[in-house]
Specification:
By secondary structure, the protein is of the alpha+beta class. α1 links the parallel β2 (19-24) and β3. The N and C termini lie close together (5 Å). It folds into 2 domains: 2-134 and 308-319, Diaminopimelate Epimerase, Chain A, domain 1, CATH 3.10.310.10; 139-305, Diaminopimelate Epimerase, Chain A, domain 1 (Roll), CATH 3.10.310.10. It has an 8-stranded mixed barrel. The protein has 7 helices and 17 strands. Mean pLDDT is 93; it is low at 235-244.
């Protein structure tokens, strides 16, 4: 069996930044066990597999795997796969107008739009941009009242947690995250996570923490964030960074989706369209930029979309 794959960097306009992704095209001949083994071989945070849709009116079905498990939905694989599918299937049309795709994921049908950036082309892929509408409405899931536990888990002083009325909360758009406001960019950069404290501090079985401040590297942006994920193994040990274990993610689209609920709660935006540009990955040398767009109607969140740029950095074949 010979399968084409592509390597992409997502939520960035330049290679070797953003969040890396492997996409295996025309993967209908693979079963779940084979997909899992291939994802383990790539050992990236996620690998996406493109297969035929169940509903023929949709563009494709997308299966997303970490090195240890399948995910119902993830942001950067959705953006990257949408860009790649558009380029492979309709490159000429993509150069003239935005393309609308519908990708079937376990979380539901995800509506995407892909456009070609005005940036200089790279190896005929160029810089593409994709956005998707969140398949599940973001929602708050509760408060996180124990600031002392949170501060200890992050290696910060308790006084450095919170700013401008923002408080630690849980929120989800299908995958739950703890959202912790941090007073300054200096404090964000000093975070030294103690993953052994994450479960108690963030009250999640698979603790994932989105830590953010209103200070940014680029004054045109709105938030800088760091995202840490701790997935303990069944025996409590930490193992591989992208399987069971702990790591910092360079760009997290699913967390950006959920952040819409946090922004609405604490910023109370007026009705209309609002875009928040999130910086992420700066602390680990993978600078990323995520655009979170919110439609507000009657003071409530009506629709959420997340988007960003994507570049292709490699391609090849798997021989199995």
């Amino acid at each position: 069996m010979r399968l084409a794959y592509h390597l992409l960097d997502v939520f960035t306009e330049r290679p070797l930044a953003g969040n890396p992704l492997a996409v295996v095209s025309d993967a209908d001949g693979l079963d779940a066990a084979q997909m899992q083994a291939i994802a383990r071989e790539f050992n990236l945070s996620e690998t996406a597999f493109v297969v035929a849709p169940r509903d023929p009116v949709h563009t494709a079905r997308l299966r997303i795997f970490t090195p240890t498990q399948e995910l119902p939905f993830a942001g950067h694989p959705t953006v990257g796969a949408a860009c790649l599918i558009a380029q492979l299937r309709a490159p000429d049309m993509l150069g003239r107008q935005p393309l609308r795709l519908v990708l079937e994921e376990q979380a539901g049908a995800v509506v995407c739009e892909v456009v070609r950036s005005q940036g200089a082309p790279r190896a005929n892929f160029g810089i593409l941009r994709a956005s998707f509408v969140a398949p599940k409405q973001p929602e708050l899931c509760g408060a996180l009242a124990d600031r002392a536990a949170i501060a200890a888990a992050l290696g910060l002083d308790e006084a450095e947690i919170g700013f401008d009325g923002h408080e630690p909360v849980l929120a989800s758009a299908g995958l739950p995250f703890a959202f912790v406001p941090v007073r300054s960019l200096s404090a964000l950069n000093r975070i030294a996570p103690d993953f052994s404290r994450f479960s108690a501090a963030f009250q999640l079985e698979r603790p994932a923490a989105f830590l953010y401040t209103h200070e940014t590297a680029d004054l045109a942006n709105h938030v800088q964030a760091r995202v840490f994920v701790h997935s303990p193994s069944k025996d409590g040990r930490l193992a591989t960074p992208y399987g069971f274990g702990a790591h910092e993610d360079p760009a997290t689209g699913s967390a950006a989706c959920a952040f819409a609920a946090v922004a609405v709660q604490f910023e109370r935006p007026e009705d209309g369209e609002h875009t928040i540009v999130i910086e992420q990955g700066f602390a680990i040398g993978r600078p990323s930029q995520i655009a979170l767009t919110m439609q507000i109607a009657g003071g409530a969140l009506a629709e959420t979309s997340v988007g960003g740029a994507c570049v292709m950095i490699g391609e090849g074949f798997l021989t199995l």
